[in-house]
User: Fold these one by one.
Assistant:
Number 1:
Amino acid sequence: MPPVITLLTDFGTRDAYVGAMKGVILGIAADATIVDIAHDLPPQDVHEAAWLLRTSFAYFPPGTVHVAVVDPGVGTERRAIAARAGGMMFVGPDNGVLSWALTAAGDARAVEISNRAYMRDHVSDTFHGRDVFAPAAAHLANGVPLDSLGPPVADPMMLSWPAPRMFDDRIECEVAHVDRFGNLITSLDRQTLDAWRRDAPVWIEIAGETIDSLARTYGAAPPGALVALFDSSDHLEIAVCDGSAASRLHAARGETVVVRRR
Amino acid sequence: MPPVITLLTDFGTRDAYVGAMKGVILGIAADATIVDIAHDLPPQDVHEAAWLLRTSFAYFPPGTVHVAVVDPGVGTERRAIAARAGGMMFVGPDNGVLSWALTAAGDARAVEISNRAYMRDHVSDTFHGRDVFAPAAAHLANGVPLDSLGPPVADPMMLSWPAPRMFDDRIECEVAHVDRFGNLITSLDRQTLDAWRRDAPVWIEIAGETIDSLARTYGAAPPGALVALFDSSDHLEIAVCDGSAASRLHAARGETVVVRRR
Amino acid sequence: MPPVITLLTDFGTRDAYVGAMKGVILGIAADATIVDIAHDLPPQDVHEAAWLLRTSFAYFPPGTVHVAVVDPGVGTERRAIAARAGGMMFVGPDNGVLSWALTAAGDARAVEISNRAYMRDHVSDTFHGRDVFAPAAAHLANGVPLDSLGPPVADPMMLSWPAPRMFDDRIECEVAHVDRFGNLITSLDRQTLDAWRRDAPVWIEIAGETIDSLARTYGAAPPGALVALFDSSDHLEIAVCDGSAASRLHAARGETVVVRRR
């Protein structure tokens, strides 16, 4: 079974940076299947990358090596890390970009990538995606043991998770991701909401608007109407049927969402 | 020979939706070669996807599984279908997105995807691309018989084709696709035009402008000039040499094009 | 080891043109690993493609077939060429798009692609990417000898390289590429600059601003400050820490950059 390596970067698709990473990978792991997660993130948006990795890694087969490179600190003293968690491998800068996925995968073991034998011969100061992370991922895909890359890291940097604040009468959460359809996806997951509401009816407030129930599908509301539902990663999402909730509500990441129960 | 699976969606490349589909596919068909057709379609534009699939599917090797997911009705009662036609396989929602390709491929046989054994264990209400269509495509690529997926569908939904209207002195057709270069591509194919014109000279009218002959290449006209020619899928196209006909003519899909003969 | 074929075009990712090329390749070389370099180039920008190919081809394994199709002259008398250089193969129109890579790879041997046996049966006048270049690349990947494609070409078209102009007190060069981060990358390479400066301190002038030294990393300057450093392809680059130099300086390709030594 060919190994799978995924790539998630802010390098865009107008330049040749992602191509260069793939060239390096294929020079080391010729039979790897390389999958793009996304590259058109807002430049240097570590939180966005962390969210996308968190909500997609688990759909890949066991053993997949996930590489995430959003790396404003490239060339400075920030560490490069690799980790095993939940049967997957992860590679990236130690700036939190991997952290939400590592937490979700569980039981993470991380090492610093410091062994020059698993880097390109010349390591630039500006493109560790190509010179450090791509070769590390390819070697891991080839079966090189994690611990060969470098010493353990006990304290990989964690991004703070935008945790919902639970109250007796309400949950306050926030928009954690806005997708290309303008859907507003919060960090409030179905399990948490269900345990709190105990079958009570709920309504949702956002940007001065009220949505009076939870729907099951986009099509449950008439075109143009606001709808609240669980998205495909089981997080509470505010959407507009056949439209963009982000445009309709002028809402972006960080917008407050309040869930109330009767 | 590794099986080929193509993906055509409106999920964009800023989110991880396409990546999740690929992860699911590779978990079932590890050796599949996955090819992106396009993902940056206007959201929920079923006609655009139908056109792109219609004009590209035939260039793939026999046995290719084509997956098209532009699916505003996800989670509602619209069916999920898979089909065999012209030596290819097709998978997508039954909203017409496959219909022009099925007609062009010929001799289509469709089934409803209803067998839960070929879906992900948990099927979300909002992302059948990942939970229904990706696994169905991967299983077909693995050789699972079409009929195993579910019962026959005799009447898959068809989009109406923007057929040219033929008159004695003219053909009225319309722009069916605008590509990234601003080329305006109509649904009038070369064979139909040649049979009608019988070697007579023709001229073309669009948006108040007249193009007095058919050219063979973009380079046949001076830079900036309008040119009419057959595009690479053998449809009549209006272009501007070294420029954008869409910008020059302020024309979009649906714009009327008239071909007249002397 | 599966052969690697890279694709670099201006076809974008909203249309199915790149997909059609991949379908044709996989119909001939079923086990090829196809890698996208970039497709969202400004339409018909041959220089941009030449730069991206020049700065990325060398990271791929020996034997890789690089296909570059930015081809405003498609269907006219411009030749189609294939070449071997530096252990790699190159395929594209003879309009200079390959030229900087061929020069950098060294010892290039080029042929005209004229043997119809290695094209699609029907060759359109508007899409040689699909009908000529994709099949040629796939056949080369399969091991077809270069000389089977057609007769030698002694004089492939060369784009003039934006060579730095060397003076005793200064080097005048120009911005050759602007990447998605707004980094301004010049054609002045590290080796040339180091040989000229002989350890003398240098400062850099661009758009009325002065940068008083060379840095090693983006992080060497405070956020928002201009910084000059060598980019990952070892060319002099003007950047803004956590920002866009292109926006900050209103600079584009062709902008003059002057390096002075004390």
Note: DSSP finds six helices and 15 strands in chain B.
Number 2:
Amino acid sequence: MLIETIIKSTGNILRSEFEFLKSSSMKDKFDLVTSSDIKIEKMLIDYIATHFPDDSIYSEEAGSIGKASNRRWIIDPIDGTSVFVFGVPYFAISIALETENGIEEGYVYNPFSEEFYHSSKKDRCSYLNNKPIRVSRTSSIDESLVAFGFSADKTNIIRYLEEWGNLMASCRKALPLVTPSLTICNVARGRIDAYIDFGSSMEGKAAASLILQNAGGRISGYDSSSFDFREKGHICTNGNIGVEDYRTVK
Amino acid sequence: MLIETIIKSTGNILRSEFEFLKSSSMKDKFDLVTSSDIKIEKMLIDYIATHFPDDSIYSEEAGSIGKASNRRWIIDPIDGTSVFVFGVPYFAISIALETENGIEEGYVYNPFSEEFYHSSKKDRCSYLNNKPIRVSRTSSIDESLVAFGFSADKTNIIRYLEEWGNLMASCRKALPLVTPSLTICNVARGRIDAYIDFGSSMEGKAAASLILQNAGGRISGYDSSSFDFREKGHICTNGNIGVEDYRTVK
């Protein structure tokens, strides 16, 4: 598999850049991460442009590249920039292939835990390190492990409390988590049961949404509408408990 | 160094238990983690009891072990149990040696990022993978990266918002993080500038508090009192910005 090779080799670079990110100035730190971001992005773009010369590419920093095509690669060189800066090894490289039928292939890689997730639409199965994965079988709210995507922005937090306070109080355990790609994959592999985020970006969830669906999970828009990965936000569940069950918990 | 050997070998076991924690039931998952916790704890206790037969030991699951002594080893076999369950590789093994002079030695190890922190009181320096570390030089609130220890418990979140809402809105970036041992060490190594948590346990911060202080940082109680690692909660800073500066930001 071509993509596996490039995503793992850029992952190794990202890993060493994370380890050596030391600087006493905050501004420098963010500049360094941006420079890692651009370096990784360039490698991924070069690879895809070489191997799939007829396809177009969309990437976070570089924007749209290449001729118009009904095959488009969506790249997130570092999903989880803020935790990268804060020193938490929970970030990923995410690559998705979009066609006129939606997301066709998805790849997510955490270079620290060496978790490589992938799925393709025609395969109808998802894999973690080449072994099939499935969502959890949890079927009650009070047994659910639920991730919320809030950062520590005061307005966001108040919004989560207002909209999800009952769920937080009723589920088995709720945790604030960032990095949509990996957290959606943690629903896909059955580690957690749901994940709610109103701020997730297209690049961070394009690949993971296919991985989740092919592992038996469901994903909707944040307003419970049908899922469009181009829109901000999402609600992921294991499919045994519906979005509406989570939304309306008393 | 004896402790480095045992902490790394138990870390490798913990890493593989994390990877293979798969179960469709929430209850099973927590039981499995508890069983990892007890297994790691037993290995650490056996090691210390063999090599330091005159010392006493305190560990989270096992409680107090051994004869009364003015040398006590404080063990946290998994700091960050909830993120372990949720699939986030940000947990650590923490070991501290306490004497009548306070924490004498501290060791913290993340088996995924292979970050091994240690410090000893007499050495007056702290190390990450055997290289000296220092806190950041950030000296203004608006450049500060600040971690908050809140889980998604509604009461906790409201308390953080009331007490720290101004700081969250004024600092460069705030993030909710768990795992006190590693997050305190991220202040010690200069990755972030402050870390505020009212719930941190003794076992999770005993070792890291020495690592922070010997890297130039400061730690106080959550109420800004002088630090006692036996009390819940803490405020850590790089020492360039004081606890009171963070507390009173408008």
Note: The mean pLDDT of chain A is 91.
